[in-house]
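Q: Here's a chain of 126 amino acids. Please give me its 3D structure as tokens.
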Amino acid sequence: MKHPVDAHVGKRVRHRRWMMGMTQQQLGDMVGIKFQQIQKYETGMNRISASRLWDIAKALDVPINYFFEGLESESLADAAETEPAAARGDLLADKEALELVRSYYAIPENQRRRLFDLARVLSEAA
């Protein structure tokens, strides 16, 4: 049975890897492991050792604490057992949301600002 902290850290690995446009194979190659192990880390089925997390953080160009952001020990454990990810508002588990964010940041900054303003206006109208 996976631990909620392992699942959270795995989601953060997947999110960062995906935002960088990196495949599991590419990340595995960078840290010297098979892509299947990356899959297991990302689902929280396997725990990531401290030294491996260090390697992954370097490969993904983030500090170690990035993987623990948003982690609330007791409430995370309770939520993991009682609610699905979408109901908790876990955007890291929503592939469409991740794709939208990645696409958004691929837009040039001046156009991105205009799109942001449009989205704000549309959301207020709903």
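Q: Can you summarize the key feature?
A: The chain has seven helices and no strands.
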